[in-house]
Amino acid sequence: MRNKSLDAAKAVAACLVVFIHVSFPGQVGQIIKVLARCAVPFFFMISGYFCYYEGKTAEDKIPSKILHILKLFFISLLFYLVWEYIMKFLSGEDTGEWLKELTDSSHLKEFALYNSTSVVRAHLWFLPALIYCYAVDFFVEKWKLRKAAYCCIPVLLAMLLWRAEFCRFFGGFYHTMEYRNFLFTGFGFYLTGQMIHEYQDKMYQCFVQKHTERHIKWLLIVGMAAGAALSILEYSFQNAREIYLGNCIAVICLFLWLVLYGKEKKISPILAEIGRKYAFLIYLLHPAVADVMKKISHHVGIDSSLCYLWLRPLLVYGITLGMIQGVFTLNMRLKNCSRR
């Protein structure tokens, strides 16, 4: 039976990604953004969770997943290449210079090594990073190195946090792309999701047999709250960062709670459907919707309105969802008509 709690959490995670890129105003908006930083790790964990296979079936299924994400990436890339050209043209920017940047060797190298897509749209880095995760996982499964890969999880997460946060205490510095890539931000969480899937039944049985289920449930809830509080505390000392230690603690505790106990909860079927069908597309398309809203709000003179600024992230999420759902509904009706 499919865990609808995970689907609902995907819908919420997509909303949190919108809140990162289209933030609420003031200090409250910054704190919401800090808490929302767990969304991308969650998406990597969910990808790893659903890419756990018994036996050798992974060798057959992972290539199809890679092909699916590859197609999605090229379509998204083409869309945003055209979109960015139009946006820059309308803004009076030098489109010729931007087109030259696209083929600059340094940008191509950053894309190949770090999955950086900043020259087009930064958020697209997730897709090539996920492709890399699937590709590495293919060889992990083929060579039966899963247990060894699991041992790398704490190393990868420690290196992520060192590069993203703790190195600054010792005068170090890494560019965002040097840790926001498939290896550090991606593969560690991907493997964590996969490992949770492999051992979820054993963990649940162990907790029930030892009568510690209730204590573990509350421990995970406390872990989520403590992770969120730690993230805010880290922000107060270090200002904005791509990820915090508290985010890692919160998202792992949340994921464990959803997997072990989420099936027991009554979940809104609408929210579960949004997560299952539309979360990924919301992630990909919301920046374009935000661009249009920015131009319209400026044109009508409400871009500085406090009321509008508070509503803007929610409107971007709602409009993006409505557009995607509308396209899905229209496509379904056209298919039904063609069958008659």
Written account of the structure:
With 340 residues, the protein is mostly helical. It has a domain of 171 residues. It has 14 helices and no strands. α1 runs parallel beside α13 and α1 crosses α14. It is globular, with a radius of gyration of 21 Å. The mean pLDDT is 92.
Summary?
This protein is mainly α. It has a domain at 47-217. Helices cover 77% and strands 0% of the residues.
What labels would you give this structure?
340 residues; mainly alpha; 14 helices; globular
Question: What fraction strand?
Answer: under 5%
Largest sheet: none
Helix content: over 70%
| Average pLDDT, all residues | 92
- Counting DSSP H or I runs of 4 or more residues, the number of helices is 14
Secondary-structure element pattern, one letter each:
HHHHHHHHHHHHHH
The SS-based structural class is mainly alpha
Distance between the termini: 33 Å
CA-based shape: globular
Map the helices and strands:
Elements: H1 4-21, H2 26-36, H3 39-49, H4 58-90, H5 95-102, H6 105-114, H7 126-142, H8 146-151, H9 153-164, H10 182-209, H11 213-238, H12 245-261, H13 269-300, H14 306-339
Helix pairs in contact: 1-2, 1-3, 1-13, 1-14, 3-10, 3-12, 4-7, 4-13, 7-10, 9-10, 10-12, 11-12, 13-14
